[in-house]
Every structure is written in structure tokens, then in C-alpha cells.
Fold these 3 entries.
Entry 1:
Amino acid sequence: MTDLTNGRARQSGDPMDSVSDVGEFPPNAKGRRTRRRRWYLFAVIPAMVLTIGVLLYSRGLCTMIGASSGIHIDLSSVLADASTPVHVHACVQSSCVSFTVEQMGSGGGEVCFADSCPLGRTWPEDSFQIHAPSAERNLWDPAGFPVVQVKDPSLSWLPITVRLNARDGAGNLIFDSSARVQPHMYQPNGPNCEPTVYGAAVVATRAGRLVPEP
């Protein structure tokens, strides 16, 4: 007969049993490793959360307002009593634009570039109509007409010279003046947010002078 008791005793001395015992971690070693892992998580996770929070917070302060560097020119007085069409030429440092005011009005209007002007179109009497070269489409913004913006991305905090001249429908020079202007920095979306632009404004007066606005 086989002695089951002795067999169990012999099995307890089997080399395989000793290997499985060696593979188990002592209770103290497991505890130390667990504590180290916890301290690592306690240190890393708050830092990650803080970094993400700062990025989201700073990004949340930035709006999405677009802007361009340039000088705003108020043409109201020049165009008020002029016989149309009025040919306008304006220069801001390295940018120059030319356009023709075909019709004046206060009820809105349209800017027609040379390659997109409709033929034979009639306009309401209270609207304005402007024709401009298509090559200069991106050099100025007539959205606030009769105040227009001549764009110039090279503007900075350094003073510049703005020049403006205009001729009426008969070819007479009705305005010719220049002014020294100090651009100001403008960040429409807040500090540390793009874009950062420089600009100023001038008024063409009835007295024939180009005057910077404060």
C-alpha cells in the first residue's frame, strides 16, 4: 500500500514547491512597492491636472475677434460736397490703395472690384457705390465707409506718414494732405492672445488737412 501521509510529506519537500514559494513577494516588500506607487500618483496627477487647468483657463480668456494693422481714414468731409465720381488715393507707409466713389449715399452700398462689377446695374439713390482694382482687394477695408481702413502689416509703435489725395469727376484736385501718425498697439482678444495689431485714425477735414484722431 502507498502511504498517503508519507507521500504528502514527501511532496512538501518537492523542489517545485520551493520555486513557487520563492516567486511570492514577502508581505513587507509588497507594502513598500504599493506605498511608492501611491506617492508617485499623488505627485504626478495633481501636476497634470494643474497644467491642463492652466492651459484651458488661459485659452478661455482669448476670444476670436479678427483684426488687421492699418490706418482708418474718415472721408466724410471730402465726399460730402464733391461731384462724383471721386477718385481717391491713400498711402500708409508701404501700402497704397486707389478707388473711385461712383455714387454717395447713407443707405448702405457696395464695393465693386474691377473683375466683378456688374454692367448696367442701377443703384438706389441713397446708397454708395465704389469701384476698386481687384489687385488691391486685400489692402483695404471699406466696411465702415465713408471711413476706410488702409491695411499695412508692417506697422509697429514707430510713427508713420499717411498721405491722401482726391479728385472730383472733372479731374480737379479737391484734397491733398499728409499727416504724421503714431500707431497704437491693439489686442482685441486680450493680453497674450493673437492677434496683436497696430493702428490709428485720421480725419480728412473740410479745411483740407489730414488730422490724427487722439
Entry 2:
Amino acid sequence: MSQILFETQTFERNQKPTEKERNEESFSLISVAFMVIIVTLSGIFAGKPFAIVVGIICFFVFNNWHEKKFGEFLYGTFVKDLIITEEYIQIGESTFPYTKIDSIRFEKIFYKNEGPSKAKQPGIQNVIIIYSQGEEVKEHFYIKDKLHLTRFFKALIFIICNEKITYRREYLNFIRDEYKHSSVVFEEFIAKLIKERKLDCTEALLLIGYNSDAEAKELRAKYCS
């Protein structure tokens, strides 16, 4: 049985909300925001700290309600399971053995709430595109947190560096630098590519990553001599 490396769900955006639904959402946001402000200010001026706590609780209760009521309009719905294993990728009922995948591409890989406060990611804009036997399959998928993201990149490193899919230089670009530079498996794979003359030494060392000229010199002596 093939070991599961990463699993999540695919995501499908819904049609845009109607004008009535947008107005209802806006009204609910304004109403609760006004209520929280009034309760909080009343507590401050009346010298009653508990009112501030009540205001904060109201905010979180509303936020949870708002997510459930409007989240489906704002984001969409989860549709299928996406599973990356040691031998194949499964999307819903469709299975794609690596031996049958002509090429694969990943785009916009972020986990939920990654990024600065003004640019939080919803975690569902991630894209996988598989080309297999003349067929193109494109799906958005969800990454919920940093740990989930780490599992994704470890899975990616596994299938690329063990050449489960036929090597292409572009595949190395799908892996974030922080995961390239901390992976022994990735470093050993780059060393293999150097020996096979599929990468020149300078580019290879940049992919492995180094923190000083001395470290770069050491890596060059190790892999490029």
C-alpha cells in the first residue's frame, strides 16, 4: 500500500453573491461593528472593564456566525479529496500514477492566514495542474496552516528528488527556498544532478543555499571538484 504523504481537499469557487446577499452582509458587518464599539466605549467611560470583555466576546461570536453564513459566498465549497502518495496522486475518484503523468505544475502555494495582516491568504488559492495522457486536470486546493504547508513541501521534495515524476528543471522552482535549504534529500538530489551535468555548479549551489563565502567554497569543493 502506497504511503500517504499529503492530503487535503480541492476547492471550487461559488458564483458571486447577489446584490441582496451583499447588502445583507454589509448591513450585518456595520451593525455588529457599531454594537461592539458602543459596548466597549460605554465600558471604558463607565469604568467597567467587564463591558470591554463583553464587546470582545460579541466580536468573536459574530465572526464565527459571519463565517458560517457568508463564507460559502465569499470563498466557495470543498469538493473532492486530494491525496499525494509515494506512487500516485488521487483527486476525487481519479488516480494519476506518477508513471502516467507527463508533467505537473503548482501555483500560488500559501496556507490560511499567511502573510501580513492586510494581505491574509484564505488558503484555498493553491493550484495543482496535472497533464496526463493528453488530459489536463486543474484544481484549487486548501492548505490550512504552516504544518500542513510543511507536509506539502516534504511530499513535493519526495516525488521530485526520488524522480517519481520525470525530472524537469522547472520542478525545482515549485519548492520554497526554506525547504530546499533545510532538506538533506534535496541537497543529495542536486549533487546527483551536478554529476549528471543537468545543472551547472553555480546554479546548483544557489539552490542548495549557503550563508557565507566560506560555506560556498566548502560546497563547491564537495560537489563540483
Entry 3:
Amino acid sequence: MLHAHETAKKKIPTGLSAVSNIFFASGVMLFARNVLLVGLLVYSSGFDGTDIVTMWLITGMAFGLLFVGVSSGLRRCSRGWRTCALTLIWIGIIAIVSESFRLVAAQFQVAAHKLTTELSTKTLLLLLAGLLFEMWQLRVLTRPDVCEWFYDES
């Protein structure tokens, strides 16, 4: 069994490295996008509701930093950061499933009123791809060979 100090010496599994890289890239992109938008908002002299929008953007920056922290924690094989990653993945799964149900329910409601809008197949395929991607990350972080890196049984 590996100890926390030994993880730096040994190469972590490829799947774990990939999930860590995904969290890092997502975090950097989220942070950078929101910094850019806050800058544009400040530069543009604002509008009614600027404070609320700024608050949401700063929250997005905080989540970007959280994702970078999760990435670092996964690479260090920290149980706490793994738990955080699993929680974020589950939130993503729940969000995708609830949005899918919402879109399908809205389509049935529209169909009942005989309106002619169609649910986009591309949208459903994109949601399915997102769900499969989240499920893959969940599977990687719960695989026995990856779990061994986070739990010391000695």
C-alpha cells in the first residue's frame, strides 16, 4: 500500500492523471473567462444589476480556483480533494439529468398545446455526451486501483 509521501515518487494511474488534467483545464478556463468578463464589466461602466452580475462572476472565479485545487489534490492523492471531486462530479450528473428531464417535460407540455417546436436532437446528444463524460470521471475515481492511491491501510 502506498503512503502519501510515496505518491510523489510513483506515477499515478493514467485515468487519475486525465481526470486531474480535466479539472485543471476547466478551472483555468472558468477563472480566466470570469476575470475577462469582470474586466469588461468594470471597463464598460456597468448597467442596472451590475453588482449581481459581478457577484456571479466572482463566484465563477472562486469555482475556477476550486477546480485547480481539486486537480492538485488529486495529483497528491488527497482523500479530501477526491471527495470534493466526487461531489462536483455528482453535482454535474444531477444537473445534466435534471436539465434533460426539464427539456423533455417542456417538449411534452408544448406538444400538448399543439405548438410546433421540436426538441433538438443535438441538444440531447450533447447532454448524453456530458453525462457519459461525468460517469467516466466517476468511474475513474471509484476504481479499486485508483482508490488504493487515496487510502492507506497500514
